[in-house]
Write a structure and sequence with these properties.
46% of the residues lie in helices and 7% in strands. It contains 17 helices and eight strands. The strands form three sheets. Strands 4-6-5-8 form a four-stranded antiparallel β-sheet, covered by helices on one side. Strands 1-7 form a two-stranded antiparallel sheet. The chain has a two-stranded antiparallel ribbon with strand order 2-3. Helix 2 runs antiparallel to helix 3, helix 6 (203-215) packs antiparallel against helix 7 and helix 11 runs parallel beside helix 13. It starts with 14 loop residues before the first helix and ends with a helix.
Length: 470
């Protein structure tokens, strides 16, 4: 159970042993250290987690001596891993999900506010990453119906799962197989067809575009710029806009441009490693070329499936559209996960202009959120929410007010809601309970045994409230 992203050091482990390690004290110290670090510095926590935590790819076995990637998959384990992040009440969600008959295991993630679950699937259906993705999208819909949003990064069969301590890890090796709908038959993807080169008057412009990607790169983006420039060059050659017979000259032109921004300690020349980056980007562009097509965002498809439908090289319109959708879907679906999927599709990182657009949208969303979440009443009464008559006083002294419970996870918000609901029933009144996550609404309603409307769309909200008042 070493770092599975490195070749030659992973091995196959029985599931019983992995669950036993999670339950034992093996990871207790590192888990607590990571959670303490997260409270102080989120970025430092993420970096340290990747270094300190052992990882497992639960979805199957992979070729030994090679990196754990989608292409090195060998055999399904009969498990499909699901991540749930940023849960309001992780213990409540866990107690809900372990009642589902298809859950093999469930433990709290290193962050302390998420869950990692293994869902039992029919191993005979999963023969490759394409099969796995079809299974994942069905499981994703099942969890959504339960009120939970899954991490879309789990769609890859090689998904790695960081291990941590959970003394109360749930484990049911006899879980039922989740019944899935028949998979669609997917025809093997034909290798990209390179077009014959046709002499044209724009050859210099195409090459200059590739060169400009490097010359316009900021100091922190030079590595990405070299790869992106090579990628673009590969696309132009594969599409017949540039002559493959001159590929050495084109690559040398990119290296010359790279020399101008090199700034290495030894001299102002591009290093061998940097040249390799340019050439690998070029090969990717050659192998993943596809004809530009008219592309429109399809609202009937998921965000991830829209990303998969983008033609290559990715048109700017598609990239900007996905970035905007990523921000709209955040934080229910982390924009970082969506951007990662987009970059995987493009085969390169976002350009500087794309990153600026992303930052602008995130800033606008943050400003809008602050505007709509600001309480405008000047004198809301304050209550000791732990006092025995808090609910009664809230109703008698704060009629017509909005109360915001900002206590942290696990501090008793759901318990207080139960007391408030109990008191309201005694005086024949009701109240509205609103949360930023559908999973919280579902879990709270199930715990309190009350009706909920977490699937109501904004347009249906007013009529539903009207029926409640009647």
């Amino acid at each position: 159970m070493l770092r599975v992203c490195t070749s030659n050091n992973h091995s196959n482990q029985p599931l019983d042993e992995v669950i036993g390690a999670i339950k034992s004290l093996k990871y207790k110290k590192v888990t607590q250290l990571l959670r303490d670090l997260r409270e102080k510095d989120e970025q430092a926590y993420k970096k340290q987690k990747a270094i300190a935590c052992e990882a497992v790819s639960f979805n199957g076995t992979f070729k030994l001596g090679q990196p754990v990637k989608n292409g090195t998959f060998e055999k399904s384990s009969g498990l499909l891993i699901v991540d749930l992040d940023h849960l309001e009440d992780v213990h409540l969600a866990k107690s809900d999900l372990i009642t589902k008959p298809n859950i093999v295991f469930c433990f709290i993630s290193p962050s302390g506010d998420g869950l990692k679950l293994g869902v039992r699937v029919d191993a005979s259906l999963i023969n490759n990453d394409a099969d796995f993705k079809q299974a994942y999208f069905q499981i994703e819909s099942i969890f959504k119906a339960w009120g939970y949003e899954t991490d879309p990064a789990c769609k890859d069969i090689s998904r790695k799962c960081f291990l941590c301590h959970d003394a109360d890890v749930f484990y049911n090796p006899d879980a039922d197989i989740c019944k899935l709908k028949p998979f669609q038959e997917i025809a093997p993807k034909a290798p990209p067809i390179r077009k014959e080169y046709t002499a044209n008057s724009n050859e210099g412009d195409y090459l200059q575009k590739c060169i400009n990607i490097i010359l316009s790169a900021e100091s922190r983006e030079r590595h990405v710029a070299r790869r992106n420039a090579g990628n673009a060059l590969g696309h132009y050659v594969a599409s017949g806009k540039l002559d493959v017979k001159n590929e050495d000259d084109y690559i040398n032109a990119l290296i010359t441009a790279s020399d101008q921004i090199a700034g290495n300690d030894d001299d102002d020349r591009t290093s061998e490693k940097e040249i390799k980056t340019i050439k690998s980007g070029y090969q990717y562009g050659l192998l993943h070329h596809s004809e530009q097509e008219a592309w429109e965002y399809d609202n009937d498809l998921t965000l991830l499936k829209n990303i998969e439908s983008i033609p290559l090289p990715a048109p700017d319109k598609a990239v900007y559209s996905i970035i905007a959708k990523a921000v709209q879907a955040h934080p229910i679906t982390s924009y970082k996960d969506t951007i990662t999927a987009l970059e995987d599709r493009m085969g390169c990182k976002l350009s500087g202009s794309h990153k600026s657009w992303l930052k602008k949208l995130l800033r606008e969303q943050d400003e809008a959120t602050r505007k709509y979440h600001t309480v405008t009443t000047d004198s809301l009464p304050e209550f000791d929410i732990n006092s025995y008559d808090a609910a009664k006083r809230m109703l008698s002294e704060g009629e017509g007010s909005i109360f915001v419970d900002m206590r942290p996870m696990g501090s008793g918000k759901t318990l207080f809601t139960a007391l408030l609901w109990k008191y309201l029933q005694m005086i024949n009144k009701t109240f509205g309970y609103i949360s930023h996550r559908a999973s919280i609404i579902t879990a709270t309603a199930n715990r309190l045994d009350i009706e909920h409307y977490n699937e109501v769309s904004p347009g249906e909200f007013v009529p539903v409230i009207g029926r409640l008042r009647e």
